[in-house]
């Protein structure tokens, strides 16, 4: 199966290892993985900030860069959710309407692609640890992702997965929200981290590096005994 990678800005700049681990998992599932080096941003930051014309320019390039019949897979529910749910608004009544509709049917968040397209939930990973899972807002609300990541994690040998209280509550990142409303954002991170600590978990795992960046910053600032890990890194762990 031929797959095109979309590597979001956060992953490209700060979590390159997560991208490489995603490739490892996809190749283990016998996917033919490709990467278009011309790709840039999906346009979400500009869109969320209210700069729709600028977002449309960036999104137009995205559509061109991924104008083929391949599946598109990204380690970010936030970016995938934006393309699926908001490109239609950006290009409403435009000549790109049909291309946008086609694109929305071909782009998948990483775990959804594994469970719903490849229909494989065990990748032979091993991680001897106790962990809890954070439902990112984008995964839960934009992409309707809930059980898929948990099925994948339950098949990781040695991993004990425990649910935290209010696991569907936002971590406080929210892109520019964390900048505009810093105090509220930090309070939400505090709540999320304390709920995770109450489980006795060593790791917080999620589908979105943006959430993990925010949570990890709070954890390190407080010197807490907790680590963050993207699910792609978990699924690539412990291979011989």
Question: What would you say about this model in short?
Answer:
With 240 residues, the chain is of the alpha/beta class. It has helices spanning 9-14, 16-28, 44-48, 52-65, 77-90, 97-106, 110-117, 137-142, 147-154, 177-180, 182-198, 209-222, 231-235, and strands at residues 2-5, 32-35, 71-74, 107-109, 126-133, 157-161, 203-206, 227-230.
- Uncertain runs: none
Distance between the termini: 24 Å
Number of helices: 13
Going across the major beta sheet, what is the strand order?
2-1-3-4
Radius of gyration: 18 Å
Please give the number of β-strands.
Answer: 8
| Helix residue percentage | 40-55%
User: Which word captures the global form?
Assistant: globular
Topology summary:
Elements: E1 2-5, H1 9-14, H2 16-28, E2 32-35, H3 44-48, H4 52-65, E3 71-74, H5 77-90, H6 97-106, E4 107-109, H7 110-117, E5 126-133, H8 137-142, H9 147-154, E6 157-161, H10 177-180, H11 182-198, E7 203-206, H12 209-222, E8 227-230, H13 231-235
Parallel strand pairs: 1-2, 1-3, 3-4, 5-6, 5-7, 7-8
